Automatic annotation (TrEMBL):
InterPro entries: IRX15/GXM/AGM. It is found in: Golgi apparatus membrane. NCBIfam families: A_thal_3515. GO terms for biological process: xylan biosynthetic process. This is Uncharacterized protein. It comes from Papaver somniferum (Opium poppy). Keywords: Membrane, Transmembrane, Transmembrane helix. Pfam families: IRX15_IRX15L_GXM.
């Protein structure tokens, strides 16, 4: 019996690929240095800190933006409230005025609203010299029959100057008449109508020159067909012989306003039946007063003047066929 020899074949191994467990080299290769852990942890912390810092900055930016928006709205609200306060104050309480300015505004408001009249509130249009001429003429004839077209502060004084005589005022403003009657009882005042406006002056003058009813001998005046004749005056105006006639109304201060064409013409007619009547016309610097005074009161009858006041003296001439002895005045 042959015995089989047993041969133990060595295991195939590679010393280069097999490392002993206790090899120090193995420890060197597998072991991670502490510095690596420290650096890694430090970088991780830095990354975390950077993220947190970025979030903080972002959060700070958002907070700042919100604060700016809130601040903007607060300032806008304050500005709006101040504006509303200023508007409310300006509407409810006007700026404080001085006492003199307040009184002036009160007078202007009253005059524009009610057109009230009193001598102290009217504009004084007669100068001192004009008024002196007027009073001197009346003083020479008192007591007399005094007729006045229009009312002014000074002309109201003429009634007391003509003590014992007859003074009559003719006024076209009803409110003015009403106010005067409350304070000046006993004065004879009548409201009259002046239909012709200042802008009609030229056409009315042409009418008077060509219409026979406008001639000086055409009587009675109450029934005259002349467009310049005042035919609705109180009866005593036509019946009395007038010593002094003052033409200072109506206003005639605007083209549409009633003017004095008819007053001057009517005065010239009644003066020719008077007692050497003194006629005074105010505002002769204006075209209407100048034209119609030359046409119906005549240059040869002008005896004196002061400022804008002309003084004519008309002698009795009821049979005359013309107002003036010279040629017709040429209107320029």
């Amino acid at each position: 019996m042959s015995s089989k020899a047993t041969v133990d074949h060595p295991l195939i191994s590679s010393p280069t690929h097999s490392l002993p467990q206790d090899s120090s080299e193995s420890q060197v290769l597998l072991e991670i240095p502490d510095s690596y852990h420290k650096d890694h942890n430090h970088s991780h912390k830095d990354s975390k800190n950077e993220k947190e810092s970025g979030r903080g900055k972002k959060r700070m930016k958002i907070t700042t933006k919100k604060l700016l928006i809130i601040l903007f709205f607060i300032l806008s609200t304050i500005s709006l409230l101040r504006l509303l306060r200023i508007t409310t104050t300006g509407t409810s309480q006007p700026p404080t005025l001085s006492q003199s300015q307040q009184e002036k505004n009160t007078r202007l408001h009253a005059s524009n609203t009610h057109r009230t009249y009193s001598p102290s509130k009217l504009d004084v249009d007669l100068t001192v010299k004009e008024f002196q001429l007027l009073t001197s003429i009346i003083s020479q004839r008192v007591p007399c029959n005094l007729l006045i077209f229009g009312i002014r502060p000074q002309t109201l004084q003429l009634s007391s100057l003509n003590s014992g005589g007859t003074t009559i005022f003719l006024e076209d403003d009803p409110e003015k008449l009403l106010a005067i009657r409350r304070t000046k009882e006993g004065m004879q005042m009548y409201k009259i109508e002046h239909q012709a406006a200042a802008k009609e002056a030229y056409n009315l003058l042409r009418h008077a020159r060509t219409h026979p009813d406008c001639a000086p001998e055409a009587q009675p005046l109450q029934s005259s067909k002349c467009r310049l004749a005042l035919t609705q005056l109180p009866k005593e105006i036509y019946e009395l012989k007038w010593d002094v006639v003052v033409v200072d109304g109506p206003s005639g201060d605007k083209p549409e306003a009633p003017a004095r064409m008819a007053a001057i013409y009517t005065t010239s007619m009644i003066a020719r039946f008077g007692n050497n009547t003194d006629v005074l016309v105010h505002d002769v610097d204006r075209t209407v007063e100048k034209w119609f005074s030359w046409e119906f009161l005549c240059h040869e009858n002008l005896i004196s003047s002061k400022g804008k006041l002309w003084h004519f003296r008309i002698v009795e001439s009821s049979t005359s066929t013309s107002f003036c002895s010279n040629a017709t005045v040429r209107i320029m």
